[in-house]
Model the fold of this input.
Amino acid sequence: MPHPLYRPRRLRESPLIRRMVRETRLRVDDLILPLFAVHGRGVREAVSSMPGVFRLSLDELLKDAKDAASMGIPAILLFGVPRAKDPRGSEAYAEDGIVQQAARAVKETIPDLLVITDVCLCQYTSHGHCGIVEDGRVKNDASVELLARVAVSHVESGADIVAPSDMMDGRVAAIREALDDATYVDTPIMAYSAKYASAFYGPFREAAESTPQFGDRRSYQMDPGNATEALREVGLDVDEGADIVMVKPALAYLDVIARVRQEFGLPLAAYSVSGEYAMIKAAGRLGWLDEERVVLEALTAIRRAGADLVITYFAREAARLLERQRFSGLP
Ligand code: PBG
Done:
């Protein structure tokens, strides 16, 4: 019997060896936790399609943000649900808007936690689109002006990083210019650069009440069949001054993450979206798969594809699992 020269199984023999030769590590430092802020007090309202995710008034949001920070999660991503919606989404750039209030509260109470804010209009507009609508169409340049206002108002309220998710053309440049004019030259932009028109956002739209009231988002978000276009989108955002670029969703777009990683040297974030969370939660609850193992496997896969940062509703659960792993020495 010829002896195999190389036996890959040698390095799989024990948990310690496996740990030592593991190529990709998920770390708590890579995780970003999205949180939904609503008006009121004592509100902790469950999102039915996202078990374990809540819409939180500021007092409750601070508790979850503190918990995340105490686990070592470096950043939260804030979304707001406004009191009222109108065609121009005015609460999105109001001084006392819900995200502005939340950013101020978190920075006052937990200064060591980074606050990233989602910059978009869809939660705030009565029609539910990410921009200004005229004659039934989403108008790019008028929307960009408002988005720049949203970004500046977030930073005025304490946001450390702004994350435009609207997919209008030219918005990164406009936001950069507006921030610079307002003296916020050091505030980074994390651009949702390759954001697909995805059905995986379904549960989020329940959480954020942001379902478009007519039509869909296909005139501004990307076609799921396109990957080369994602590189063009990322390239534009880089040229316009993005500091961190993003691919979204994550699990069904690992090839896009890998290609962006290959082509660009900037920090790359991937957003594991609400539908990805809902699928794993649902199957876990039904006992159809082992939720804890699947969470770590999925998040590790997103890192392996090339993402530096992973935005995930599982952030706290993953942080807990990673902590447990560290002490048990288990994979
Ligand atoms: C807002 C926005 C959306 C998500 C993040 N920012 C929804 C959308 O574009 O419809 C989706 C997040 C998720 O599904 O977890 N534009």
Notes: The CA atoms of residues 40 and 57 lie 5 Å apart. The chain has a mean pLDDT of 96. The chain has eleven helices and twelve strands. The longest helix spans residues 140-156.
